[in-house]
Amino acid sequence: MTAQHQNHALKAAVIQHQSPGYDKHKNLQTSAKYIEQAAQAGAQLIVLQELHTTAYFCYTQKQDYFDLAEPLNGTSVKYLKQIAADLNITLVGSIFERRTAGIYHNTAVVLDGDAGMVGFYRKMHIPDDPGFNEKYYFTPGDATLNGRCAFQPIQTRVGRLGLLVCWDQWYPEAARLAALQGAEMLIYPTAIGWDPVDTVETQQHQSEAWRIIQRSHAIANHLPVLVPNRVGEENGTQFWGQSFICGAQGEILNQANQDDEGIILADIDLQQTEQLRRTWPYFRDRRIDAYRNLTSRHIDQLN
């Protein structure tokens, strides 16, 4: 049992910053600056935003951008691995992964102190919206990999991380499957923003929906949720920041604003899940015998 679990508390941090241009080393240095600040403030778990090593390139379809991809043992992971070891922290980063010729993934990686990379997660749900042409670049993660079920948590010194990425956040099935496999928290590295043609009212509704859906995953599974988001304007998209950490009842523990780079910290109560599941035993009362049709794309109503 780790010291963090003995004390039932984990100090965690999420980071939001701009990632202009395609100089990975420069952007990694920016990440490193905030990682060090978070570690100095006592954070044991630190989470970076989606695709933080470059500008968000999926705004368009351009074959040259595949050159940005790198393997799991590439320079970005090695850089983050060294930081995690030097600071003795658990660190979640994000890369554009080249798995092999023609197969590329949007991949989150977990670096656990001097243990190095202890796991990774390849984004499962891939969007294709105006300004977010991700289906052109990313192959969805595997439903099973090396005999493991999808959405299986990653064991670290600070607990079992239910790691998901951005568009995955709209799917309660993903959060539930992570929870059913023993996740102790849900983590969503994110890159989401507004289209400038949307009205202020529409933008407000979008960002509120984004917070509500993820807080609902916390409530439905009695798990804390950590969400770092990009910030700043890139190629016509205004990434809305507002990174947050919430507790296992969806309560906001800390939240960033929509404009500024920086870190937010929160103390997560690791005992809260056990207490809540005793009081409100959703998992006990699930009617698993009635959910078979959830695997259907659509249930047609034919009269």
Please tell me about this protein's structure.
With 303 residues, the protein is of the alpha+beta class. The protein has one domain: Nitrilase/N-carbamoyl-D-aminoacid amidohydrolase, CATH 3.60.110.10. It is 27% helix and 27% strand. It has eight helices and 17 strands. The protein has helices at 3-7, 24-40, 75-87, 134-137, 172-180, 200-221, 272-279, 282-285, and strands at 9-16, 45-47, 90-100, 103-112, 117-122, 144-145, 148-149, 154-156, 159-163, 185-187, 193-194, 225-227, 231-234, 237-240, 244-246, 252-255, 262-269. It has a six-stranded mixed β-sheet. α5 (172-180) links the parallel β9 and β10 (185-187). α2 (24-40) packs parallel to α3 and α5 packs parallel to α6. The longest helix has 22 residues, at 200-221. The radius of gyration is 19 Å and the shape is globular. The relative contact order is 0.15. Mean pLDDT is 95; it is low at 1-6.
